[in-house]
Amino acid sequence: MKTAAVILLCGFIASVSAFVPDYFPACRHSNFEDWVVIEKYCVKHFEEHANFDEAEKQCQLMNGLSHLVTVYGTLVKRLQDLSNSPSWIGLHFVNNNPRWLGENINTIPDVIRNQENCCVKINSSGQLECTKCTEKHSFFCAFIENR
Residue 38: what are its φ and ψ, rounded to 5°? Predict the structure, then answer.
């Protein structure tokens, strides 16, 4: 198991998931070795609690390429291997229109279709859930590894 912490540019410490399973390879980008590769992403879970907008801003501060993670397919289960605490992902709904942060994809999980003005988190059971964007949760930041 690996342990890690990161100091954000704005001057406070965000603790990272205490244990990262060894079967996740490390991200190959310099200064991001404590991030792990899941599918095509370098990913890191942050235990610090923030609302949706704050979490996205903190992800962007990492390297200018990071956003809250885009989740599809089996990625939800893989993320839950990093943390089972409720955590923001990069999907929100504005006037019933889904918007992913960071990537322009059209894949919207069926369990959260037709929502209005909410942000999406992975709950402690590993299910996607739409909730108020002002709630504070931990979060997953990610960027595409091959950039």
Answer: -130, 115
